[in-house]
Each structure stands twice: as structure tokens, then as C-alpha cells.
Amino acid sequence: MRIARSFSAALILCSLTVAMAQNVSQPKPKVPKPPGQKPTPPMIPPKPVQESGKILELKGMDPSLMDKSVDPCVDFYQYSCGGWLKRNPVPADQSSYGRDTELAERNRLILRDILEKAAVETSSRSAVEQKIGDFYASCMDEASIEGKGASVLKPELDRIAALKSKDEIAEELAHLHLINVNAFFSYGSDQDFKDATSVIAEADQGGLGLPERDYYTRTDAKSVQTRRQYIRHVTNMLRLSGETPLVAAAHARKIMAIETALAKASLTVTQRRDPASVYHKLPVSDLAAMNPTFAWNRYLRATDTPPVQSLNVAVPVFFKGLETVLKQQNLETIKIYLRWHLVHALAGMLPKAFVNENFDFYGRKLSGQKELRARWKRCVQSTDGNLGEALGQIYVERTFGAEGKARTLQMVKDIEASMEQDIKNLTWMTDATKQKALEKLHTVANKIGYPDKWRDYSKYEVVRGDAMGNFIRGAEFESRRQVAKIGKPVDRGEWGMTPPTVNAYYNPQMNDINFPAGILQPPFYDNKMDDAVNYGDAGGVIGHELTHGFDDEGRQFDAKGNFDDWWTPQDTKEFEERTACVVHEYDNFIAVDNLHVQGKLTLGENVADLGGLKLAMLAFLRHAEETHQQPKAAEGFTPEQRFYISYGQGWCENDTPESLRLQAQTNPHSPVKYRVNGVVQNLPEFQTAFSCKTGTPMAPEKRCEVW
Ligand SMILES: [Zn+2]
Predict the structure, then answer these.
(1) Helix H or strand E segment including 505
(2) Which residues are annotated as catalytic?
(3) Is the pLDDT of residue 473 over 50?
(4) Does the pLDDT at position 406 exceed 90?
């Protein structure tokens, strides 16, 4: 996903899990569950994360979660996770439920506790407690939100209504972008691809209400149905904001026509994985010439962009398409389109009728989620989205010990040492390229737990009782923070995820790997468990992120974070031959129904999974040797078996069919089943550990290997 919100970097950041692809800034429902399809009742009741008020501890590798009746050489995922999958159907308020969700639910309970305490108005509250407590209390005050009704939209709707000419759109769009309304295009700042030391302005494709370009162009029955449902949803939102049914329906069709034109000028998610396709640094005058109907200079002034000569016009062809839209549509139609995106962006803090309608389309229809998540969960998420490093300060004080940090760092060092060995041993890479690869590896910065310096929110005003105002000011605070970076030195200490997040990422422009405190806990990392378990799970995560620096996208950035080709043509050819094997392997996997995994879209993640687990095993063996500790068998499994089962269990997850569909069509991560089976089937060490005979599904004749 992108590092920021709609004010964002052009590059798709390589993260660990699907959750990263969701926008966390708004209490917007995540993806999905299938209509009319009831989950099979669990044989054993699901274990609640919270039992009688006490927050339960989760545990690393657990044999009771397995299905030992399955042959590990036939379906290792089912073997590792079968018991868990049976006992943990997707809850009604989720679209997918995995071990990461279990941990996220546990984190949420801790965050709620912190927020409820901070919400009590006492004179001893710190500035941080005041902000998070009042934000949360205001968000929870549904009576006040209902009481104000749709009137909170009025000041914003009035601004749009007051537009008198197309020239004035620039200032209004600047304002809307600052408050996180994704109309027409997206704008923000990013490190210059070619000079990672400087931050430049960036304009990128945007302006869609459906998840991705191809949702507007696919012709299969399911896609046609989704578009019909979307038009109905837009109609309903316009009705709720005061339009008559007939007018709203006519307006929704006009909005759909604009978005379809924008979509056709946009790149697909797969095309966007190529850095060259989203980097076009141009003089501002070139952009203005490309897009004469839009007053770019007025827009840049209105966003408070520092004086700039050039910017990254990520997708030039998109701005040519935008020009056609702005020229062809009259001002009244443009106002209709802006109104829709305004209501859409603010839906989460509006009265129930809006929230429910928003959920019905994005949650229920698109993601298969049966029920709206409880208010408190949405408010915890929104507080984390707007004040993540304020809430995160208290969260890490409570949960993140020094031991966890030290042991994680040790694993990172072991895995980096293993990668060094791996690169040196490669038979297909020339010495010249190996030198550069090692230089890059040695420059990777390791960020663990939380930032060294917390973000200063003092300029963000949080007012108790003003949920919508807090939400809008939060968006504006973040947008202005992004724009203010333009022309300033890069802050290498900055984090793109908040501390409670159950996820991790690699950023090629920073050349850093980031592991928030939220994921460095059981079941992913368990202080009480032996190395086999922790290297299999947390070690696999670390190896995954490190390998991203060398996947199809990351390899195109050098040690300093510059988009620069440091590969000889021969090495590039060898690399591409190896990745073609991975593309082909994953193209053959079925995500849901007859929908295949997209091998090219998921290539970077698959290469990272594959390299990550191989490196984690090397590191595990290396660590045992260096510390002269002979790993012991336990619970009926050899240390190597425990390592792989621990990895497999990290990915136990149930999904609704809608969620799988949405993921396969938009997300660079493969479905969890293939993040296990697709990986181990390529590893001879796995095949030895479980004595798999060549020719069994987990030990095919042909293996893929990149790193
Ligand atoms: Zn990843």
C-alpha cells in the first residue's frame, strides 16, 4: 500500500499482509463475506480473545491447531492449520480472520482500555491523553452525531455550491484534497525516485470510488453486477445528503461516467508495480500545458506547496485523460462529482444511515462482511489512524519489553548474515552485481518496535464533542505534514505504520525494514518459545521484508534508495528467468471460484515469501551453531519440522469468497494457502524435514528459486 493516505507516494510499498492494503485512517469497513452463505458451525466453539474481562495471551506454534490426518507432503497448509481453520470461522464483523486478526483483536482490546482511561476528563491528563481521549470520546458519542445529522456537511457542501467557474475548481480541489477527499487525482509528496535525499511534490492518478481501474472495465457478469450495485450505492448516499431519488439516480450515472473516463486513463495495479511507470519528473509548466483546463499554479498555492519548478507527474497519460473530463463536463456535473466524493470520504463520522449505507456496499457487497463492526472497534481504528503515534506511545509502554526488542534484533542480524552468505554463494550472479547487492544489504536500516522520535501533534486541535471536526482536522494535519516535507531533507526516522499495527514493511526508497511493536508478540514472536518456533514465524517475517529489497521492484533501487539500475544486463536476464518460474507457478493457483492468482501482480510478495523462509532457516541453523545450542525435538516434532509448522501457522486464515475475490483483483499478496504451500514446495530443506517423496504436491520435480 501507500505510505500515507490519499496524500501518498506513488510506489506500492511491500508489506507483509493484506491488511496493509486497507486504508486505516478512516473507520471504513475492510473487505468481506458471501451473501446468503452461512459459515459451517464450528465443531468446537471459537476461543474468545477476551474471556471474563481478561485479555488472553496467544501462543506461538501449537500442535492442537494442526490437522494431523492430512499428509504434510500433500497439503502442508491444511496440515499446519486444519484444526485452527475448523475452530475459527470468519466472525460476522470481519471479512477475513487469521492469526494476525486474532492478534489485532487482542491489540484492539488493549487500545480500548488505554482510550477509555484517557477519555476520562481529569486535570492530570497529559497533552497526548487529552488528544486521544477526546478524539475517542467524541467518536463514541453517537447521540451527538445523530443529533447533528447531515448538517455537519453543510459548510463543505456550501463551498462546492459556491463555485462560479471552472477556474475556481483548483482552490476547492486543493481544500478537498487537504481534508482527504479523493476527487479527480491524488497529490502529496514523495522521495524523488532518482534522488532519495530529496522530497518532491507528486501528482498521481485517483478519483475513483471502486477499488481499482479494472473494476470499471471488466465485462464478466460479476463485475457488471458490482458496477450496478455501486451506482445504487452512490444514489443512496446522494439521497441521504438531501437529493430526491430521481435526481440522485441521474447524478449517480453522471458520476459513473466521469469515474469510468478517469479509470480508463489510469494504470492497473500490476502496471504500477514497475517504478518506471509511475515516475515522470516534469516541469510544472509541462503539467500545466498538459492540463490547461485546470489552474495548476492556483492549486499548488492553495495546498501551501513550497515553490517548486518540477514535480513527479506519476502517470502523465492520466492527466491527459483528466483534461478531457474537465473540458467535456460542465461545472454543474463537476460539482455533483465533488459532492459524492465529499460524502464518501466523510461517511464514517456521519449519522448511522450514512455509515450503514457505506458498509452495505464496501463491507457487505464488496467484501462479504456480514455485520458492521462495533462502534468502539471503528473508533479505536480511527484514533489509531489519526493519532497513531500518540496512542502508540502508551501502547508500547504497556506491551513492548526490552527483551523482545533485543531478541528480534538478534534474529534480524542472523538473517542479514544468512543473506550475505546466500548472495556470495549464488551461481548465477556476476561478482560486479554481487558487490552492489552486498553493499545494499549492509545499508539496510532496521527499525524495530516504534520510532525514536514521536510525531508532534500539538498543531492538531482535538475538540471534545466535535467528531466530524476532529476527523477533518486530522486529515488536514496529516496532509499538510506531507506537503510541508517538499524541499526539506528526508526524515529517515519516520515510520509508515503505527506501533500497534500487526504488520511490517520494507521501503525501497528508504532502504529500511520496519517491524511495529504490534506484530512482535505471540503468536508471531513468543518470548516463551524456542528458536525453532520464533525463527519459523517472526524470522520468516523478517526474511520476507529483507528479501523485498531484492524482489522485482525493490532490486531496481540501490543502497541509497535511488531508482537506479545496478545490475549487469546478464544478471538481469538471469533474475528474470528465475522470476518467470515464480510467475508461472502462482498463475496456476486458484484464488476463488474460477479466478486465478495473478502471478505478475503478486510476484514481489511471492519472491519475498520464498527468499524469506529460506533465509530464516539458514539463520536458525547458523544461530544454533554459533551459540553451540543443539535445537531439541519437542511435542513429537524435529526442530526443523517445528520451524516449518510455526511458519505455516502464522498464515492460518479463513476468508469470505468476496474477500478472496477482492484480494485477487487488487492486492499484491497471494491468498494465505499459497503463501504456505506455494513456498514450501520450492524448498528442498522442507522436503527433507518431512521426508516428502519427489512427485508429491509439496515436492514437485520442478522448483523455483530466486534468492
Ligand atoms: Zn511483503
Answers:
(1) strand 505-507
(2) 545, 609
(3) yes
(4) no
543: CA distance to ligand 1 center in Å? Answer: 10
Reported as a single tens digit per residue, the pLDDT across 74-102 is 999 999 999 999 999 999 999 999 999 99
Distance 274 CA to ligand 1 centre (A): 16
> Helix (H, G, I), strand (E, B), or coil: what is residue 506?
strand
431: amino acid identity, one letter: D
Global pTM value: 0.92
* Residue in 348, 351, 332 with CA at minimum distance from that of residue 151: 351
Average pLDDT taken over every residue of the chain: 92
Query: How far apart are the CA of 539 and the centre of ligand 1, in A?
Result: 14
Half-sphere exposure of 88 (CA within 13 A, CB side): 24
**Helix H or strand E segment including 324:** helix 316-328
Task: Record the cell numbers describing residue 561, joined without a space.
Answer: 534508495
Residue 343 CA: distances (Å) to CA of 38, 183, 382, 601 = 32, 11, 17, 32
Cα(555) to centroid(ligand 1), Å: 14
Distance 233 CA to ligand 1 centre (A): 33
Q: Starting at the edge strand that comes first in sequence, how are the strands of the sheet with 281-283 ordered?
A: 185-192, 195-205, 310-313, 281-283
Using the mean position of ligand 1's atoms as its centre, give its distance from the Cα of residue 615 in Å: 15
Report whether pLDDT(667) > 70: yes
CA 138 to chain centre: 27
Q: If DSSP codes are grouped into helix, strand and coil, which group holds residue 332?
A: helix
**Location of C-alpha cell 472495465:** 217
Helix then strand count (H, E) for the chain reads: 26, 14
pLDDT at 407: 82
From the list 158, 112, 157, 103, the residue with the least C-alpha distance to 139 is: 112
Helices (H), 426-506: 431-443, 467-484
Backbone angles phi, psi at 515, to 5 degrees: -125, 95
To 10 degrees, the CA torsion angle through 217, 219, 223, 224?
Answer: 100
